# Entry
Amino acid sequence: MAKIHEVEGWIDGVVEEIIDPEREIIDPHHHLWHGPENPPGIKDSYRYLLEDLWNDTSSGHNIKKTVFIDCGQEYFSDGPEQFKPVGETEFVVGIANEAKKDLSKAQISGIVGHANMMLGTSVKEVLEMHIEKGQGLFRGIRHAGGWDEDERVKNAHSHPTPHIYLEEMFQDGLRELEKLDMVFDTWHYHNQIEDLTKLAKNLPELVIIHDHFGGPLGIGPYKNRRTEIFDKWKEDIYELSQCPNVYSKLGGLAMPVNGWDWHKRALPATSDEIIFEQREYYLYTLECFGSERCMFESNFPVDKQSISYHVIWNAFKKLTKDLSEKEKQDLFYSTANKVYKL
# Structure
């Protein structure tokens, strides 16, 4: 039986009036991928190409630019293993070029791909190929570190070790990234934030972007432990924020792994529900990092399992209604524009 979020039309069950529709926005975190053929009556939720991206970015908010983030798609099928991820960059460049045919819609203005940082210094050749194939769009690497010993928690697609951020070879690879003036996007779970802080202190010149609040888990052994995890998370986020080379993405909390189970309901989440359940994550991170080091993200289509695109951006606008215009500009546009050099 299909999961409820895969049923055609489910995501459209909540429709909201667009708040502040003229505000210019950069969405610095989305994916693209081909999906399998649709089973009858089931939404192919794993297909997300330009038409799907534009359906979302054109749903009411003023999305000007986007940044693609690695998701293991369209790797080269042959050739040396270390160069295969460059196929994803080539794939996205093709879509970005297609998007240029209609400049009235959101443009894919940056690409964060994947390279195996465990190659150490030899990863330089892979990074140079990404840059060559990226046609001016390539901005950096995400080598996801998400790992947990419990089999109910899915480890990252990049097959990390338990403490990959502290591996000497991994940090040697990141030094090559830094030399090329590229950014490092991170994805891990809440109990790995301390490792990232140590890495950030070891590499103080490397620009690090902390995705999805550090992945506070709410499934498997972490179910029904939200308050306990949140208290420790606050300590770890504060320590991470003391590293001036780290920036924070605010979003990505509507995934099933976070444990709110919106994807199992008859209707997706509303903006008010997002705020009620998650506002403290947003406000505390903003308090620690400041608006100049924070940016909102959609994490689509992954978060589309729980909430629609126009609703999540409504939630962000409601969360910031009492902030200054400068802070709003940072969060919705300027921080992403600066960090990703768009």
Residues 4-339 form a domain with the TIM Barrel fold (CATH 3.20.20.140). The radius of gyration is 19 Å. The beta strands are 24-30, 62-69, 107-113, 138-142, 183-186, 208-210, 246-250, 294-296.
